[in-house]
Design a protein that fits this description.
The chain is an all-alpha fold. Helices cover about 75% and strands about 0% of the residues.
Length: about 100
């Protein structure tokens, strides 16, 4: 992309939106991943448990977005002839595969 192209504005705007989506999703995903509503306030080590829960939720969110990026790129490479959700499922399955 050349300087002054619309992409120079669109990409940062998309990144900003994506960061906001991730922030919005964090409490939802974190809650779904924790049992019993998370660590108790008086529990020793609660801060470490909270940090771990946030880290795990952020990881799930990041992997989900990355898989959608790959699926979208695949759909573009197929000139729209594929199924984006099938491509997403394939990408996500690869993250679960152990060597």
């Amino acid at each position: 992309m050349r300087d002054g192209d619309k992409g120079d504005v669109v990409v940062p705007a998309y990144v900003q939106k994506r960061l906001q989506w991730q922030a919005d999703l964090l409490p939802v995903i974190r809650e779904r991943m924790t049992t019993g509503g998370g660590a108790g306030a008086g529990h020793e080590g609660a801060a470490a448990e909270e940090a771990t829960a946030d880290h795990e939720a952020r990881t799930v969110i990041a992997v989900s977005f990355a898989c959608m990026d790959v699926a979208t790129a695949g759909l573009i490479a197929l000139d729209g002839a594929g199924d984006v959700m099938e491509l997403y499922d394939q990408a996500l399955a690869l993250t679960r595969t152990t060597p």
